[in-house]
């Protein structure tokens, strides 16, 4: 992959397609600790089968890089003290993996949960945004039964000091715990309570949008949803359902385009429903995402 262009910085939507249970049960694991030589491993076309197997126990972050792995990502992985394994992949030397992850730029950061790929983002994120993505990923992994850890047996095994994780506010912790048990209604209630106490709590607003999406996707058969939308392209319920799938898979432009194309022909409650859903998607993806900026501009023009 010698022609991999540097990627622009942007926050990508976490790919939650693995939560669309398409009539399959999540992969169960023992949740124990697995000994590994390091929290950071070199991934190659040849050894990736072992990494896939490890992802059935612990979430694996995958970085496809050009040049050198990102030091900030390596440092961040170590902060999580075994909750994630990082596999760094030289994109130029491993074309099969580049194709498998459909990477068009470097760095591309993805993940593996239970052997299944999850798209994360392209480029490099500020540490705070990357932590938010990883925290969401941990929720996805827990919902799919991947709750183990890895334990480094090399020099990393005894770090001088592990940075203490900043505790979540009580209501945010309550929501997080509820998500881990699949109680989306309780998580929604906790986030709504946090917003009532502090209307400017941006993390609660984003969390509510995220968990509402999880609830809508729970138990959904993706093929049925896409078939219904294809059969009735003007049906608002079908369009909203397939837009959820698109957002869950990181296909924001598809979701935005579908709903905005439909928006101009709607009135009354249907118009409000689509506008509200779009605003939720904007919260999930982040206001600085260029796809959000473009979609918000188009929505404003349609409104006025």
Explain the overall architecture.
With 304 residues, the protein is an alpha/beta fold. The protein has helices at 48-54, 71-79, 95-100, 127-143, 170-180, 184-197, 202-217, 222-231, 236-248, 252-263, 268-285, 290-303; strands at residues 33-36, 40-42, 60-65, 85-90, 108-113, 116-122, 149-152. The chain has two domains: 17-157, Glutaredoxin (3-Layer(aba) Sandwich), CATH 3.40.30.10; 170-303, Alpha Horseshoe (Serine Threonine Protein Phosphatase 5, Tetratricopeptide repeat). It has twelve helices and seven strands. Strand 5 (108-113) and strand 6 form a beta hairpin. The N and C termini lie far apart (46 Å). The relative contact order is 0.13. The model is unreliable at 1-31 and 157-162 (pLDDT under 50).
List keywords for this structure.
single chain; 304 residues; alpha/beta; Glutaredoxin; Serine Threonine Protein Phosphatase 5, Tetratricopeptide repeat; 5-stranded mixed sheet; 12 helices; 48% helix; 12% strand
Number of β-strand runs: 7
Per DSSP, what share of the residues sits in E-state strands of 2 or more residues?
Answer: 5-15%
Q: Widest sheet: strand order?
A: 2-4-3-5-6
The secondary-structure element order is: EEHEHEHEEHEHHHHHHHH
Number of helices: 12
Task: Report the mean per-residue pLDDT as an integer.
Answer: 81
Given this structure, which CATH class of the largest domain is correct?
Alpha Beta
Measure the end-to-end span: 46 Å
Query: What is the CATH topology classification name of the largest domain?
Result: Glutaredoxin
Write the layout of secondary structure elements.
Elements: E1 33-36, E2 40-42, H1 48-54, E3 60-65, H2 71-79, E4 85-90, H3 95-100, E5 108-113, E6 116-122, H4 127-143, E7 149-152, H5 170-180, H6 184-197, H7 202-217, H8 222-231, H9 236-248, H10 252-263, H11 268-285, H12 290-303
Parallel strand pairs: 1-7, 2-4, 3-4
Antiparallel strand pairs: 3-5, 5-6
Helix pairs in contact: 5-6, 6-7, 7-11, 8-9, 9-10, 10-11, 10-12
